Amino acid sequence: MIIWIGSYLLLGIFTGFLAGLFGIGGGAVMVPVLAVMFVAQGFAPDYVVHLALGTSMAAIVPTSIASLRAHNKHGAVLWPAVRGLAPGIVVGTFAGTFLAAWLSPQPLAIFFCLFMTYVAVQMILNRKPDPARELPGLAGLSSVGGGIGGVSALVAIGGGTMTVPFLVWCNVRLQTAIGTSAAVGLPIALAGSMGYILNGWGIASLPAYTVGFVYWPAVLMMAAASFLSAPLGAKLAHSLPVATLKKLFAALVILLALQMLRTVLTY
């Protein structure tokens, strides 16, 4: 058990740092790694991916708070965009958890792999937006938020891998896009956690210390570590160029997604 506690702490440190640096929730890293760890611990194979998704969502809550606070100190949170995106994000995320609970692990793993690979390719290409493009109105932001929330629930990400590219596409400064994404990640994590708890409630084959699809020993260890490391990543985001780091992160995302896919399909 000590080995797993240490592993959760290390995972929390790493994902918290990435959350602060890129404005992501950390699910892109947590989900595939947790899936591998849960398989190694002998958890019920039918629910390994669901547990990884739900546990990741719950761990993202404190990570998002720490990242949000750090970015807000730098004045890098575009609050009008947060208010416009948040309603759709909450509805989309909560609804998406019911679809995720209904699907079997294999489709979820395939969807996660394909989606994260697409996001990684977009990060590597680093396409420049039309200079005249601006943020849409309230209705447009709410619609975009619904899409971001729905996909976030299926892959347990804080939405940063979609929110940051969307905001940059609308000509928001990269550092501000990262800070705004960190703020948007909090309602995603809260709604997603509640959804995964409700959808996994009462399933007898889940491991001990689990509430719904949330495995709390992993959540507590990762959350404690990420809460400390997220501000460090946020500080770097405002002092270093992130283009090269984004490409490295994209490569890491692809490798982790492929590893998750291999683990689920061969277990």
TrEMBL record:
Main location: membrane
Protein's cellular compartments: Cell membrane; Membrane
Membrane disposition: Multi-pass membrane protein
GO cellular component, one term: plasma membrane
Record key words, sorted: Cell membrane, Membrane, Transmembrane, Transmembrane helix
Superkingdom to which the source organism belongs: Bacteria
Record field: transmembrane: 7-35, 47-68, 80-102, 108-125, 137-157, 177-199, 206-228, 248-265
Family: Belongs to the 4-toluene sulfonate uptake permease (TSUP) (TC 2.A.102) family.
Protein name per UniProt: Probable membrane transporter protein
Organism for this UniProt entry: Pseudohongiella acticola
